[in-house]
Structure formats: C-alpha cells, structure tokens
C-alpha cells in the first residue's frame, strides 16, 4: 500500500503531543498507540526546538515504519525531509503548500489545519492531502482557538471531493465522539483523551472498530 492509499484507509489519527507526554514516555506511549493498530501518527512538540524535534522524530520514524503507520511531523517540512517521515502537518500560518510539495515531493502526505468551511475548501484547492477540521469543542490542547461546533461538518464534506479526508479534531473523547459521528464525521483526531487514557492500546483498538477502520 502506498502512502496515499494508506491515508485513505485512516479513520483514527493520533498525535504524540509533548505537552502531554514526558520525554522518557515518548517511545512507550508511541508503542502503545501503535500496538492498538493506529495507522497515522503525528509528532507535535510546540515547546521544543527543531533539533530536539528532529531527534525525537528519528526515534519514532523507524517504530512507525515497523508497524505500518504513517508518520507525520507537525510544523517542520525540513525535518520531515531529513528523517524520511511520510509527511508534514501545517497550520494556516505555516506557509503555502505548493513550496512544501516542491520540497517533499508528490508522494508526501501534506495536511493542513482548518477552522472554517472556507479554509477547508481552500486547503483542498491548494492540494492538501487531508485536512484537520476544528476545534469542534473547546480544548486545552489548542488554547485560545474558538470552537466551531458540529454544524458545518456534513456540508463541508459534501462540498469537498468524495472521500477527501476530513479529520475532525478538538475536544473529542468517549463522551463527545457519538455526537461527532452523528454530525456526519467519519475521521477523527484524538489527542489528550488518548494520551491520558489508562488503556491507550485498548482504546485505539475500540475506536478503530467504532470508526470502521478495523
Ligand atoms: N488543532 C485543532 S484542535 C487541536 C489541534 C491540534 C487539539 C486537539 O486536541 P484534543 O486534546 O484532542 O482536544
Ligand atoms: Mg503549525
């Protein structure tokens, strides 16, 4: 399966966010996510310098490859290139995707954070391979970002090409997930709820079944 085929099969997107994971837990937590069958994982480290992130990425890349999981670097295309990650995830203010595509090549998986229907359509237009859409609910993982609620999920998906990967994000947990699915979502990113869960592996397994990935 190539990267894009793998991406289209992904329903659950996990993030190792260093705001929740102590550095000595980086590999064990990642192993727990991967043991549950996670198919796409991002490394997100907002308070670390690029050299440090590259070093962490170098440890995670082979682990993800071993489990057949796509590995995405947040914010830094050059790091993704240097360590042979599968792709990069960029926010609205992280530059244009065409130059990143030029750097990483057509096979790379490039994602964009979007916070409105306009941004979602814009990211698709600039050839993002997938989008994050949210935050649906208020979340401490992205403080200061207004929640957008559930009402635009279905219409955004209808306006995008069929099966374009829209990963809903922000405040999704065991309590909120049913309403997210009810609103029409079929792909989700879950960060803090998974990383702080006492049974990460079992929860990934259950979520993948619920989302129709497994
Ligand atoms: N972008 C929009 S919401 C969010 C990001 C990175 C954080 C999602 O984290 P959580 O803990 O699942 O709410
Ligand atoms: Mg960013």
UniProtKB/TrEMBL annotation:
Pathway in which the depicted protein is active: Cofactor biosynthesis; thiamine diphosphate biosynthesis; thiamine phosphate from 4-amino-2-methyl-5-diphosphomethylpyrimidine and 4-methyl-5-(2-phosphoethyl)-thiazole: step 1/1
This protein's UniProt keywords: Magnesium, Metal-binding, Thiamine biosynthesis, Transferase
Q: Which Pfam families match?
A: TMP-TENI
Q: Which cofactor does it need?
A: Mg(2+)
Q: What is its EC number?
A: 2.5.1.3
User: What's noted on cofactor binding?
Assistant: Binds 1 Mg(2+) ion per subunit.
GO CC annotation, single: cytoplasm
Which InterPro entries does this entry report, sorted A to Z?
Answer: Aldolase_TIM, ThiamineP_synth_sf, ThiamineP_synth_TenI, TMP_synthase
GO terms, molecular function: magnesium ion binding; thiamine-phosphate diphosphorylase activity
Query: Which enzyme class, named as a word?
Result: transferase
- Residue positions annotated to bind 4-amino-2-methyl-5-(diphosphooxymethyl)pyrimidine are 42-46, 74, 113, 142
Keyword Secreted listed? The answer is no
Residues annotated as binding 2-[(2R,5Z)-2-carboxy-4-methylthiazol-5(2H)-ylidene]ethyl phosphate are 139-141, 171, 191-192
Which chemical reaction does it catalyze?
Answer: 2-[(2R,5Z)-2-carboxy-4-methylthiazol-5(2H)-ylidene]ethyl phosphate + 4-amino-2-methyl-5-(diphosphooxymethyl)pyrimidine + 2 H(+) = thiamine phosphate + CO2 + diphosphate; 4-methyl-5-(2-phosphooxyethyl)-thiazole + 4-amino-2-methyl-5-(diphosphooxymethyl)pyrimidine + H(+) = thiamine phosphate + diphosphate; 2-(2-carboxy-4-methylthiazol-5-yl)ethyl phosphate + 4-amino-2-methyl-5-(diphosphooxymethyl)pyrimidine + 2 H(+) = thiamine phosphate + CO2 + diphosphate
GO biological process assignments: thiamine biosynthetic process; thiamine diphosphate biosynthetic process
Q: Which CDD domains does the record associate with it?
A: TMP_TenI (cd00564)
Q: Give residues annotated as binding Mg(2+).
A: 75, 94
Question: Where would I find the Thiamine phosphate synthase/TenI domain in this sequence?
Answer: 12-192
Question: What does the record give as the function of this protein?
Answer: Condenses 4-methyl-5-(beta-hydroxyethyl)thiazole monophosphate (THZ-P) and 2-methyl-4-amino-5-hydroxymethyl pyrimidine pyrophosphate (HMP-PP) to form thiamine monophosphate (TMP).
Similarity section: Belongs to the thiamine-phosphate synthase family.
Task: Give the HAMAP family listed for this entry.
Answer: TMP_synthase
Full protein name: Thiamine-phosphate synthase
């Amino acid at each position: 399966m190539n990267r894009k085929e793998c991406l289209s099969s992904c329903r659950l997107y996990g993030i190792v966010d260093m705001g929740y994971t102590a550095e000595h837990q980086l590999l064990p937590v990642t192993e727990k996510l991967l043991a549950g069958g996670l198919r796409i994982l991002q490394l997100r480290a907002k308070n670390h310098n690029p050299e440090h992130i590259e070093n962490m990425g170098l440890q995670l890349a082979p682990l993800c490859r071993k489990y057949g999981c796509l590995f995405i670097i947040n914010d830094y295309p050059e790091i993704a290139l240097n360590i042979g990650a599968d792709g990069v995830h960029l926010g609205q203010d992280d530059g244009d995707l065409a130059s990143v595509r030029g750097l990483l090549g057509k096979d790379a998986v490039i994602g964009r954070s979007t916070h409105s229907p306009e941004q979602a359509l814009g990211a698709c237009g600039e050839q993002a391979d997938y989008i994050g859409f949210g935050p649906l609910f208020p979340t401490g993982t992205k403080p200061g970002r207004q929640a957008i609620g559930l009402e635009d999920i279905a219409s955004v998906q209808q306006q995008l090409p069929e099966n374009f990967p829209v990963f809903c994000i922000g405040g999704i947990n065991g309590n909120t997930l049913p309403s997210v699915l009810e609103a029409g979502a079929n792909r989700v990113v879950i960060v803090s709820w998974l990383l702080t869960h006492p049974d990460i592996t079992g929860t990934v397994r259950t979520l993948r079944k619920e989302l129709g990935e497994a």
